[in-house]
TrEMBL record:
Residues 59-88 form a coiled coil. Keywords: Coiled coil. This is Uncharacterized protein.
Length: 92
């Protein structure tokens, strides 16, 4: 159960929802931990595996978002260079 204390709040929220628990915005990490451990569907190994999967999904999503932001930034830089080149050579 110590693994719940190391989890991010967003992962605990996702886990509680997956377990069918009602989650409100005012819940703290401690409250979420209690909600999860008192769930009728709570089994240590199952919840640990679900939490790992949830965390892995979040990390992958964050990685993809960073990559997309970097690509958009690089595209904007290239477009700016093209505009500057066009302006230098007098293209509309």
């Amino acid at each position: 159960m110590a693994f719940l204390g190391k989890a991010k709040k967003s992962d605990l929220i996702s886990l509680a929802i997956e377990l069918g628990e009602m989650v409100t915005n005012d819940l703290r990490v401690v409250d979420l931990r209690e909600l999860i451990t008192k769930s009728k569907k709570y089994e240590v190994e199952f919840v640990a595996n679900m939490l790992d999967a949830t965390a892995d999904e979040r990390v992958e999503k964050e990685k993809l978002e960073r990559q997309n932001e970097e690509r958009a930034f690089e595209l904007e830089k290239k477009q700016q260079r093209i505009r500057e080149t066009e302006n230098r050579i007098g293209m509309p």
